[in-house]
Amino acid sequence: MNGETINREELEKLLTETEASLREHIDEAPTLLVQTGSGLSLAGSAEVEMEYAKIPHFPVPSAAGHAGRLRVVKDAAQPYVHLLGRAHYYAGYPAWQLGVPIRALHRLGVRDAIIISATGAINETFAGGDIMLIHDFINFTAINPLRGIAGESGMMEFPAMRVILDSDMEQIADRAARSAGVALRHGIYAMSSGPAYETIAELKALRALGADAIGMSTIPELMTARALGMRTCAVALITNNPMEATPTHDEVIAGARRAQATVERWLNELLKLLAKIRQ
Question: What is 8-278's CATH topology?
């Protein structure tokens, strides 16, 4: 099962098992997913809370700062499923398995995804604590979570990745930022495979290509969600500047935790706006 590729029949069986396990605990899933990365958590009591390790075929995080818990939060303005932490390609998981949580939750009725990750700045004008709305991405890894299985279970056979940031979600995100008094930057995110941090030459090359921030996640989840026709909104939390100083994972986690209150303030406003629109 942990091979780099999987056929559609095997994936269907696997997803059926994952879906059945989730339905044992979740009567009705909210239509919104929020995924948070290194060092980030979110307030709000969980009606349901499950360890990834107890959900069949969910990839389990290995990095510090990634709790690996699925939470169903219904006491927010807009209820949501919270994926607290994520697994990474560098931990040895095949790309397709990184998309399993998105695929399984889509089967439960999730249709919108807000994906938040901790990243390093490439853009010289960015600083730690900035929040960047991801307009587009550069897949510097050459991995593809759809390889061999695009077209499965309602997924598009040849999904276009031209629109990563849904236009409606972009407007809501910007309005939420203004209401929360948060400066929301816009830019391009690049993903490297990790676990090694990038060389200066690689960072300069990505900057020349137009990248504003760099991380080791997010793209597999975004590609999976887009192939399923989900509305996506991805946010890069800038925790450090790898061009200026050698990055460490402890620094990334610390940077994310320092920005915790800012991220929550923005997200809470966004949830309020989504709730009003859906009334």
Answer: Rossmann fold (3.40.50)
